[in-house]
Amino acid sequence: MGDTIITPPAQILTVEDISLAFGGVRALTEVGFGVAKGELFAIIGPNGAGKTSMLNCISGRYRPQKGTIRFQGRDVTQLSPNHRATIGIGRTFQNLALFGHMSVLDNIMVGRHHLLRSNVLSGALYWLGGAQKEELAHRREVEEIIDFLEIQHVRKATAGTLSYGLRKRVELARAIALKPELILLDEPMAGMNLEEKEDMARYIVDLNEEWGMTVVMIEHDMGVVMDISHRVMVLDFGRRIALGLPAEVMAHPQVRRAYLGVADDEDVEAAEAEAGR
């Protein structure tokens, strides 16, 4: 009997030798990695390491001077953010980008605008054409997202009046409403208390495992990164210094120095314990 051949999962995202500079400042230097379909992939590193710059290159906000980004085998390096959204790349932001004067429901509906197929004429003939049925179908999907993120009680509230933790949840809801194949999360737990972090971590894992979304996440909370990530990449001064399983990455000497700021095993253990609190 021959050996069983295990086919590795297909890569949904391939980043090849990305370099990005602002004037004389190098934000990224020849960074490359791949993300498998269905993976929960974390990018970590010290402040200023280039993590958000990398996410901005993937989402289309920044155009790298060098390198290629492929999504599902397609070169998307020159595509606009809106175009990338239409083919299945969604994202959240480190700083909240909600419409504060709009309701939670309307903020989430904004995330579905590119999925609307009705034209101007059918919109004008709302009650006679298909626009009404289409809106009702979108509303049902939005209500499913609201239930998933447990924000039913604030669905009609003005977004700007909500607590910080709830606003972060609403922003995630809007990104999910895009129905992305790949979702980019920029510090989804920043500024949250312990209970809010635990809830957000659960939502992210469920998005990945139950909703089938591939996740690329920037996160500073090392306890969360170690607990929920399948693989981790570490950036330092715009360069990739480690890539692998969470435990392997945390044991990497360069990661100890760059991210934890320590050099020997005892100091590393103490720093990891502190990060996991």
From TrEMBL:
Molecular function per GO: ATP binding; ATP hydrolysis activity
Keywords: ATP-binding, Nucleotide-binding, Transport
SMART domains, sorted: AAA
The protein, known as: Amino acid/amide ABC transporter ATP-binding protein 1 (HAAT family)
The keyword ATP-binding is assigned to this record: yes
Source organism: Stella humosa
InterPro entries documented for this protein: AAA+_ATPase, ABC_AA/LPS_Transport, ABC_transporter-like_ATP-bd, BCA_ABC_TP_C, P-loop_NTPase
Residue span(s) of domain ABC transporter: 13-262
GO CC term (a single one): plasma membrane
SUPFAM superfamilies from the UniProt entry: P-loop containing nucleoside triphosphate hydrolases
Gene3D superfamilies: P-loop containing nucleotide triphosphate hydrolases (3.40.50.300)
